[in-house]
Amino acid sequence: MLNPQPDTKEDSSSPDETSNSQNGPESHPEPPAPETTELQAGNVRPLFGEGSAAPTPRGSKTAKSSDVDPDARIIRRIIAEDPNYNLATVAPLTDLCLKQCIENFEFNSSVITHLDDRQRRRLLDAIAPDLPLKVTSHVIGEDPYWARACHERWPVVDLSRHGGSWKRAFFERMLEDAIETFVPGHTYAPRLEECVSYAAPYVHHLDIRQLLPPLREQPKDKDEGSEGESDSEQSSEPQAVDHLDLGPVLSKLNELEKLALCFTVKKCGMNFDWSVFQFTGRDCLNLSRAIQQHPRLRELHLTRQVPALLMTN
User: Contacts for 108-116 with beta carbons within 8 Å, 24 or more apart?
Assistant: First the structure.
């Protein structure tokens, strides 16, 4: 009787599976050791004596600058608190030019025509109010500048008497002061003529409250033998003196419409003399000629003021 042949079919299982099947039930592979993980990651700690340096912990203060990427560094600059610290800035070129215009305005006043409104205002607020009239009279027309000029010379200015214009108030008050302080034969006449030429286009009303007479020569000391003078010689009437001739002044004031004159002297004090209150015949002739040559004059106020104390006596 024939014995059955064993199945010679090729086993496809691998040797590992065979060994696993022989060992018993299925088992999971063990995790690799820590040394193996470090080797696979490439973080191998060098031993003592090797050339590579030990890795530096993250955030360590002892890290070398060569190990840090220069593009990744954050560069900081610390400035201590300083209350006086101020980074000066360069002024704009327009401000520098305007400063030079202000400093040299007396020598070149025509620059004001090339400025805009803001620059003009800054220039007029910065220049001095006592500049010569030959510079400012016909160039500056804005009232804020003339308001400063008025307050610089007079503490109180009644603007209602001057048509509400500060420029008109300045020139009318200036010309009134020049005429009231003029002493014939003593004051420099070209000075008065200069004031009239600058003020002529802006003067509409003049109120002259005094006209000074010429200076009288002091009498020489009399000898001791002249004590016997008669009382009639001592009581002789003083000679009449003529005042300022207003003809040359009024002929240049083409805009003048109202004129008030008072032939008197204010605050004469101990120098009182009846002659200073006289309205002489020459004064009358000079005034009449001046009025005839001024057809635009509409009002004339002529008064002769005598001190009230003398009138009561």
Answer: 109/135, 109/136, 109/139, 110/139, 112/139, 112/140
